[in-house]
């Protein structure tokens, strides 16, 4: 293991999160089995009282996990100097077989935590615990993801050795390589752009209808993660090359470097926020209607769709600007 | 009421509530700031040291070639450099002659190196050597070799302190003086320094060189940078692990402070509940209090750490983080704050604090009004 301070901080964060989520998981199981709002017995009162603690704890974990995704990516980039062959975060993540699975788990935790936080906020607005059961099913899922993430991350950091020879992003995202990265890099630029901007147009159109139509909201919930995947594919195949002004450099991680003005953060933060809020809006539209939330839900959905629209629009606008301003001409 | 104005009222209430318990808040902030300052010093000092090493290495040769015999370092011959000339991409190569000398009068090790610009009978000395032997330009330096040979040279100048991390223990001599002093044959050298035109070709040139000169060790600058990076990170991590005890003690302290409610506080919560606050409001208000304490302490602690490292040269950690030597260089650290280090520091200090107060805060907030007012 490399006892680098950011590594210690990340391990502390994920261990604390996992430690918090284990008792929370047990409580969620008990609540799902015993919850009975019509009853006034002592156990029900106790359950109701403890939900405040659980909400606070899970919100704490969710916020920690949101911050640790950014720290993880940034740290991977910074640690690249330690490995032979690594030039950016890709090399560091590739230095152990747990690297990319950890990143994927972190992204999954990010979205699950984001959606759960919105659900919790909505549920707290209603006086009659409108979505309490859904929220606790969510905690079961989130707890599993958080523990999985902590375990993968620990395995990853334990497995890292300074003498490892790894491969750089040019290999993983090269036009001639094998595997998913190379496949994405090889997508025809015109097709990637059509998919990207077509997808953005559809997703934004769905967001506009979310506050009025539950169907549109549900579709947005499905479209947002799909849009996320398309956007990442677009970054790899066409946006990155325009930023680097180099037709064979497809890496989505080098964008996070200082050399490119931290453009990656500018691009990814709106993308992650928009995807998360789109998924949250989708979930809220799919849940059964509740009388106690009839005044609260429409403005909330409105705010979520504004976040989705502005996030995706910002992502699209920045990509378009980079492609137009680039001195590289592919088409 | 808009969300913004509600947050403002909460903040207002939290500040006045913290001020009502002035001494408790102050003691908490004091301990909290010390923890941040302690951990922050380690992180800031580590970053500055790593940056310093990287800057120094960036001016050195791209590849160093050493001869090995039975796994130990051996001298090279001038012919070895000729064998490498003509390697495509190699801009310049030079054979270097240098060695170590233990000086019993100062109880220190010097690095003696041949320098083409130094005239016979003259020497350039590093800042550490000048300090240990109280030298200044014009003064005489006397050295005794392990074989008992005597060397008298006049100090021409002291090497500029901006490269002190590397040059502190250095004595630059004329080549003939150095050979005579150590009785080294004329065509023997310590190592070869190679400079490569294109940094991307360094690895390939090292490989090609190793084919021409089998049995020699080729160390690239990247290897050295990596070793330094690992070494400093490891030391930093080690100190942090040792300090983990302090962080745990602090978390217990915070837990204890948050758990113990004074009768006045109980009454306050009872009144708040009686006038219509519910549990989540009180939790929010208490967390805002925690946030204010954390923010203030983090800021104070970080400023203290900054002052400790850059104004007082990290007196508490210097021996552990830099290593120890009689001629340890006195160098100025480049002042630098790095976003990742600040985030790490926040995760390492604020996280344990918040985790420690969550349960006590909830217990306080969920108490029944009649129970707490009784």
Please tell me about this protein's structure.
In chain A, helix 2 runs antiparallel to helix 4, helix 4 packs antiparallel against helix 5 and helix 10 runs antiparallel to helix 11. Chain A has 2 domains: 167 residues, no CATH class; 164 residues. Chain A is an all-alpha fold and 331 residues long. Chain A is flat, with a radius of gyration of 22 Å. Chain A is built from 11 helices and no strands. Chain A starts with a helix and ends in a 6-residue tail after the last helix. With 374 residues, chain B is α+β, with helices and mostly antiparallel strands. Chain B folds into 2 domains: 202 residues, no CATH class; 158 residues, Barwin-like endoglucanases (Beta Barrel), CATH 2.40.40. In chain B, the strands form 3 sheets. Chain B has a 6-stranded mixed beta sheet. In chain B, strands 1, 2, 4, 12 and 13 form a 5-stranded antiparallel beta sheet that branches. In chain B, strands 3-11 form a two-stranded antiparallel sheet. In chain B, helix 2 packs antiparallel against helix 8, helix 8 packs parallel to helix 12 and helix 10 runs antiparallel to helix 12. The two termini of chain B are 33 Å apart. The chains are: A mainly alpha (331), B alpha+beta (374).
The total beta strand count of chain A reads: 0
Cα separation of the termini of chain A? 46 Å
Computed structural class of chain A: mainly alpha
Count of helical stretches of chain B? 13
């Amino acid at each position: 293991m490399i006892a680098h301070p950011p590594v210690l901080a990340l391990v502390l964060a994920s261990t604390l999160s996992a430690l918090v989520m284990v008792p929370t998981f047990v409580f969620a199981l008990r609540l799902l089995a015993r919850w009975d709002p019509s009853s006034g017995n002592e156990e029900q009162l106790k359950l109701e009282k403890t939900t405040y603690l659980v909400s606070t704890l899970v919100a704490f974990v969710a916020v920690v996990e949101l911050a640790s995704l950014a720290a993880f990516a940034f740290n991977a980039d910074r640690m690249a100097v330690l490995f032979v062959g690594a030039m950016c975060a890709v090399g560091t993540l590739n230095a152990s077989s747990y690297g990319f699975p950890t990143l994927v788990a972190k992204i999954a935790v990010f979205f699950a935590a984001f959606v759960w936080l919105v659900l919790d906020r909505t549920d707290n607005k209603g006086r009659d615990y409108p979505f309490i059961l859904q929220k606790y099913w969510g905690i079961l899922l989130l707890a599993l993801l958080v523990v999985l993430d902590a375990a993968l991350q620990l395995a990853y950091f334990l497995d890292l050795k300074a003498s490892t020879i790894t491969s750089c992003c040019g290999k993983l995202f090269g036009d001639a390589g094998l595997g998913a990265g190379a496949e994405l890099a090889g997508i025809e630029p015109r097709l990637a752009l059509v998919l990207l901007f077509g997808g953005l147009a559809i997703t934004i159109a769905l967001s506009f209808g979310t506050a009025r139509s539950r169907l549109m909201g549900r579709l947005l919930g499905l479209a947002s993660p799909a849009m996320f995947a398309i956007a990442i594919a677009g970054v790899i195949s066409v946006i990155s090359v325009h930023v680097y002004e180099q037709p064979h450099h497809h890496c989505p991680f080098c964008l996070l470097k200082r050399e490119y003005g931290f453009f990656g953060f500018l691009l990814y933060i709106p993308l992650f926020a928009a995807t998360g809020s789109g998924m949250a809006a989708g979930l809220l539209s799919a849940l059964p209607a509740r009388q106690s939330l009839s005044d609260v839900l429409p403005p909330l959905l409105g705010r979520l769709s504004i976040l989705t629209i502005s996030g995706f629009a910002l992502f699209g606008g920045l990509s378009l600007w980079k492609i137009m301003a680039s001195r590289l001409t592919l088409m | 009421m808009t969300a913004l104005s509600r947050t403002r009222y909460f903040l207002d209430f939290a500040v006045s509530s913290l001020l009502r318990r002035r001494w408790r808040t102050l003691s908490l902030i004091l301990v909290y700031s010390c923890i941040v300052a302690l951990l922050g010093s380690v992180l800031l000092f580590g970053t500055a040291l790593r940056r310093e090493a990287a800057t120094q290495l960036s001016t050195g040769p791209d590849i160093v070639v050493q001869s090995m015999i039975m796994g130990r370092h051996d001298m090279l011959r001038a012919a070895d450099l000729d064998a490498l000339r003509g390697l495509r991409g190699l801009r310049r190569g030079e054979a270097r002659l240098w060695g170590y000398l233990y000086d019993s009068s100062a109880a220190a090790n010097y690095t003696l190196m041949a320098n083409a610009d130094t005239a016979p009978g003259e020497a350039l000395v590093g800042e550490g050597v000048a300090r240990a032997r109280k030298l200044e330009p014009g003064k005489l330096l006397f050295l005794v070799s392990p074989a008992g040979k005597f060397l008298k040279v006049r100090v021409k100048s002291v090497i500029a302190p901006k490269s002190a991390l590397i040059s502190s223990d250095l004595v630059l001599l004329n080549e003939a003086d150095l050979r005579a002093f150590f009785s080294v044959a004329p065509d023997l050298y310590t190592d070869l320094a190679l400079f490569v035109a294109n940094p991307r070709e360094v690895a390939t040139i090292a490989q090609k060189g190793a084919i021409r000169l089998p049995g020699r060790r080729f160390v690239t600058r990247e290897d050295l940078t990596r070793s330094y990076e690992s070494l400093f990170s490891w030391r930093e991590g080690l100190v942090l692990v040792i300090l983990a005890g302090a962080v745990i003690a602090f978390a217990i302290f915070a837990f204890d402070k948050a758990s113990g409610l004074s009768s006045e506080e109980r009454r306050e919560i009872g009144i708040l509940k009686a006038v219509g606050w519910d549990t989540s409001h009180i939790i929010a208000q208490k967390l805002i209090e925690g946030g204010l304490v954390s923010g203030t302490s983090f800021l104070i602690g970080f400023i203290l750490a900054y002052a400790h490292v850059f104004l007082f040269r990290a007196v508490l950690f210097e021996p552990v983080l830099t290593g120890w030597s009689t001629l340890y260089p006195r160098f100025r650290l480049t002042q630098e704050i790095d976003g990742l280090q600040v985030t790490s520091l926040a995760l390492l200090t604020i996280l344990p604090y918040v985790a420690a107060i969550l349960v006590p805060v909830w217990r306080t907030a969920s108490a029944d009004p009649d129970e707490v007012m009784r």
